[in-house]
Amino acid sequence: QLQLVESGGGLVQPGGSLRLSCAASGFGMDYVAIGWFRQAPGKARERVSCLSSSSASMDYVDSVKGRFTISRDNAKMTAWLQMTSLKPEDTAVYYCASAPDYRQCVGGLFDAWGRGTQVTVSS
Predict the structure, then answer these.
(1) Which pLDDT value is given to residue 66?
(2) Are 78 and 72 in contact (CB under 8 A)?
(3) Fewer CB within 10 Å: N-end or C-end of the chain?
(4) Is 78 exposed, middle or buried (0-12, 13-18, 19+ CB in 10 A)?
(5) What residues are paired with 51 via a beta bridge?
(6) Angle at the Cα of 43 (from 6 to 87), degrees rounded to 5?
(7) Among candidates 73, 93, 69, 72, which has minimal Cα distance to 81?
(8) Is 64 buried (19+), middle (13-18) or exposed (0-12) by CB count in 10 A?
(9) Percentage of the chain modeled with pLDDT above 90
């Protein structure tokens, strides 16, 4: 099972950008799907994006389409979530997660995740 550590969160003004990083350790990043989900206070967990092991398939929740971009470099054991045109409603703790395959990632069936990084969008 992978161990995942997120970084890159912070406070940003509406319309700004952030790039979240996810450093993986352990065995097998090449074989798993990577996703990001977020959770705001008092709200349910929301899957944000998924990326297949080969980066051939990707998916975004409607609210972030056109603004967020998911990517990964298996050789570097790292994944990223580039976030642009940020809105106050994007404020949440963002988690990097792995799933056995892309279908399970899209279904929110993650088997490992990090401790999260806080993203706050406010003026």
Answers:
(1) 98
(2) yes
(3) C
(4) middle
(5) 34, 58
(6) 65
(7) 69
(8) buried
(9) 94
Q: How far apart are CA 17 and CA 98, in angstroms?
A: 24
Cβ(103)–Cβ(49) under 8 Å? no
What single letter denotes the amino acid at residue 14?
A: P
Structure tokens at 119: 């993203």
Which tokens is 76 given? Answer: 């570097």
Which stretches of the chain are assigned E, i.e. beta strand?
3-7, 10-12, 18-25, 33-39, 46-51, 58-60, 68-73, 78-83, 92-99, 112-113, 117-121
